[in-house]
Amino acid sequence: MSGHSTPKAEYVAEKIKNMLFSGEFKRGDKLPSEGKLAADLDVGRSSVREALRLLNAGGYVEIIPNRGAFAAATSEDETPSPRSWLELNADKVAELLNVRLCIEPFAAELCAQNITEEGLALLKELLDRFENALDSRNWTLLAKCDLEFHRTILTESHNRYLIRMYQPLLEAFMQYSRRSFAATYSQGDTYKEHRAIYNAIALHAADEARVAMQLHIITAKRQVKFTEKV
Predict the structure, then answer these.
(1) Per-residue pLDDT tens over the stretch 156-169
(2) Helices (H) and strands (E) in the chain, counts
(3) How many Cβ atoms are within 10 Å of 39's Cβ, its own excluded?
(4) Which of 7, 100, 147, 185 has CB 3.0 to 4.6 Å from 3, enough for a Cys bridge?
(5) Please, what is the average pLDDT of the chain?
(6) What φ, ψ does residue 205 adopt, rounded to 5°?
């Protein structure tokens, strides 16, 4: 899944959100299939699939593997605040960060050894985009840049098994990242940590890249614990 959403997907997401808010659905109701939504909205199934992922990340729908998408909010009032969402999903977030701590430092080490010039240029571009999104306080864009930054590191590890292991985490990553940026004051720290990871990778310093990634995820774990206590 790409970390970038397309204008078409955002348009479709808005259309589906309007359906949710129209009174047609109650919380927990199953939405029509991707094929039905695509036909009703006169768009491709890929746009519907991406739109549902955006709505899932925003807390408007819940995607259950092999079952489909279900209405999670039928008005803005039903959408949990970012801090409330983190508190409600504290166990899941902790599990996600623990798995990331196992996978991503090793991926950063391999990335520093194997990254291509194109991959390094993409990481720098994502770092710049993250900084611009930080300046505009655009949490959704920050989360997309965050996801793509980490996904690029996994891709540039050039270890096919590591990449496959990470795929199931992408949806959970996006849900957590956007709310974490909105609920905490960690955005500036995250940018500095990303820059440290990038600098180590750019120098092909494998040990430094691994340690920088470890520190980044450990800091995220501490930030979530702090959020729970507030």
Answers:
(1) 999 999 998 887 78
(2) 11, 2
(3) 13
(4) 147
(5) 85
(6) -95, 95
